[in-house]
User: What shape does this take?
Amino acid sequence: MSKSIGANSYSFNYVEAGAGSPLLFVHGSLADYRYWSREVSYFSKHFRTIAVSRRHHWRKGGEVPFSYRVQTHVDDVLWNS
Assistant: This one.
């Protein structure tokens, strides 16, 4: 089941499994956190796995105004790290 977290004035959906050192999965341009389901299942046996849907990807979409800048996505991933 997915969760959500707020960062940079946006709500992001993600899944999390396992325990230990974190392992973050970030999808490419035409996917979402579901893309990593096999990897999350496998690696969660040894790591705390987190797969996030980037801004404007599934379960979101249709936001106005719409901005798709690379730097925005970088800032989202690095937020509060």
